[in-house]
Amino acid sequence: MSTTSSPVGQVTGQGTAQAIASAEAHSAHNYHPLPVVVSSAEGAWMTDVEGRRYLDMLAGYSALNFGHRNQRLIDAAKAQLERVTLTSRAFHHDRFARFCEQLAELCGMEMVLPMNTGAEAIETAVKTARKWGYEVKGVPDGEARIVVASGNFHGRTTTVVSFSTDPEARAGFGPYTPGFDVVPYGDVAALEAAVTDRTVAVLLEPIQGEAGVLVPPPGYLAAVRELTRARNVLFVADEIQSGLGRTGRTFACEHEGVVPDMYVLGKALGGGVVPVSAVVSSAEVLGVYRPGEHGSTFGGNPLACAVGLEVIAMLRTGEFQERAARLGDHLHEQLGRLVGHGGVTQVRGRGLWAGVDIAPEHGTGRQISERLMDRGVLVKDTHGSTIRLAPPLVISQEDLDWGLAQLRGVLAES
Ligand SMILES: *Cc1c(COP(=O)(O)O)cnc(C)c1O
């Protein structure tokens, strides 16, 4: 395969170079992808336009928890494609009630409000918490406040970036939506000090994914639960990335025995097939809505519900959670051996989810990611020198070990 002088690297062939050059010319540069152009995928593996195979250790930021083209999910989607795909919410359809019922049950909650993307579900959570604050808690109109954590990632809409602490995500997009108070993640005292009688919700990721797979100190989530309950404030858990099996439990909150007032779900809920997100909560909270007050043309569409129902059925057996826990223990045991020597300074995470800090002398996170790509492993760096590992939960232990061997190899040679 011929190589080019393009900046995408020497191993890159013509098909790859052309696809990337064309994408650069015709798409906004709001991402900086690794120079690989995927054309097919199955399970934990992807194949590029040159026919090279790669182990996917990112899994679409956990949207692909069940692997690429999981047969059960593809079958469910195909069957629904043959029946009806979209009705809008102007009419009922025969998948909707069951999806909502089953999702509420999986969450131990009562009601569901389906949307499409994670950011939309967060927007929905914000609107819901405010409305609950005014109608149920009795906060004076227009004065509701929501407490969030530094280092958060909840999506990319204007309201959501308004309470981001990442200058890249936020700068240049003002004016910002008011009504948010930011406290340090993991700091119970700071949270307690920030809560006032105007506070309607505390919105947190039980593990901060984009921040580098940060696990809060033990007892933090339980303390947040206790505090929010005592102060009549909703505990909103953004489990878009941490939920649905990734950490070895259905929800990351479970590791501390915590049940929030509201789950925000997305990513894996659509099985890597379609975008499906949802807010799941009690009848008291989601009961605040009346017709016309919120909605989405595609939210809760038949195809989304059919795929989502299959995702829920797969999670109900517990086998994916058990697998994530077992392989996760193995992953963290293996990564732990690289700490101190072997180029790793710190490892965090739970289940099949790890943030791996690389000693700077071994290169930036981006450089490590590129060297892993050359060895057939796809990962994503975050915040300079952290590599995030989140393989599909269906990965075999052999493949996981092979991927880790490539990481050891990259660190050894750099
Ligand atoms: C990905 C993510 C979001 C946003 O989801 P989109 O579907 O990209 O809008 C929100 N919160 C968390 C924790 C996420 O990981």
Describe this structure in words.
This protein has 414 residues and is an alpha/beta fold. The protein has 14 helices and 15 strands. The strands form three sheets. It has a seven-stranded mixed β-sheet, with helices on both faces. Strands 1-2-3-13 form a four-stranded mixed β-sheet. Strands 11-12-15-14 form a four-stranded antiparallel β-sheet, with helices on one face. The longest helix has 20 residues, at 118-137. It is globular. Residues 1-10 have low confidence and may be disordered. Residues 61, 117-119, 122, 153-155, 205, 209, 238, 240-241, 266-267 line the site of pyridoxal-5'-phosphate. Its cofactor is pyridoxal 5'-phosphate. Its EC number is 2.6.1.13. Pfam families: Aminotran_3. It is an enzyme of class 2 (transferase).
Describe the protein's topology:
Layout: H1 14-26, E1 38-42, E2 45-48, E3 53-56, H2 59-62, H3 71-81, H4 96-107, E4 111-115, H5 118-137, E5 145-149, H6 158-162, H7 167-170, E6 180-183, H8 188-194, E7 199-204, H9 220-230, E8 234-238, E9 262-265, E10 277-281, H10 283-286, H11 302-316, H12 319-336, E11 344-349, E12 354-358, H13 365-374, E13 377-378, E14 380-382, E15 386-389, H14 397-413
Parallel strand pairs: 3-13, 5-6, 5-7, 7-8, 8-9
Antiparallel strand pairs: 1-2, 2-3, 4-10, 9-10, 11-12, 12-15, 14-15
Helix pairs in contact: 3-11, 4-11, 12-14
The structure holds pyridoxal-5'-phosphate (PLP).
Pyridoxal-5'-phosphate binds next to helix 5.
